[in-house]
Amino acid sequence: MTSSRLAPYPMPAAASLPVDGPSWSIDPRRSAILVQHVQNYLLRSLRDSAPTGQLLANVGRLTRCAWSTGVPIVYAVRVPGQPAGGAGHVLLEPPAEAEPRAVADVVEPQAGDIVLAAKRYSALVGTRLRARLKEPGRDQLVVVGAAARTEVLLTAADAWMQDLEPFVAR
């Protein structure tokens, strides 16, 4: 299955981001990190268009900080071969590895991290993510991932509509 080619783009600079926004701030006792779609086969597909090296470095720093402070980390991974309308329909090339859910080594899940299969653009739809956040009393969600223009932003919007406080990391 193929998709249209992505045009190359840089990571957004801090100066290009809006200055207005919600008044809340991240509280490690209330937050969880959601890492979306940093699987090897997807990153290979995006290597010519997206800033994957910079993305992985940023996600690596974020996850290491979360592990050291006890902030839960949840991974949402795409399930290859889903029908159109599911998260898999933007797949650029089929996975070559035996385990298509394999996450890039630099941000690989650790013991205690949660890995969920993404079924739709929003990681809150069709998964147990909301319940996994509620169990430890987390109502803030820091979202980061490879599909920022779709899955990351739609998950953040969905989180806000479900009375969570979302943050999108770059």
Largest sheet: 5 strands, parallel
Number of domains: 1
Number of helices: 4
Tally of strands: 5
What percent strand? 15-25%
CATH class: Alpha Beta
Provide mean pLDDT, rounded: 80
Calculate Rg over CA atoms: 15 Å
CATH superfamily grouping: Isochorismatase-like
Strand order of the largest sheet: 3-2-1-4-5
Structural class: alpha/beta
CATH architecture level-2 label: 3-Layer(aba) Sandwich
List keywords for this structure.
26% helix; globular; Rossmann fold; 5-stranded parallel beta sheet; 170 residues; 4 helices
Question: What's the gist of this structure?
Answer:
The chain is an alpha/beta fold and 170 residues long.
Textual characterization of the structure:
This protein has a single domain, classed as 3-Layer(aba) Sandwich (Rossmann fold), CATH 3.40.50. It has a 5-stranded parallel sheet with strand order 3-2-1-4-5, with helices on both faces. It has 170 residues and is α/β, with parallel strands linked by helices. The protein is 26% helix and 16% strand. It has 4 helices and 5 strands, in the order E-H-H-E-E-H-E-H-E. Mean pLDDT is 80; it is low at 83-92. It has helices at 40-46, 52-69, 129-134, 148-161, and strands at 31-36, 73-78, 114-118, 140-145, 165-168. The chain starts with 30 loop residues before the first strand and ends with a strand. The protein is globular, with a radius of gyration of 15 Å. The relative contact order is 0.22.
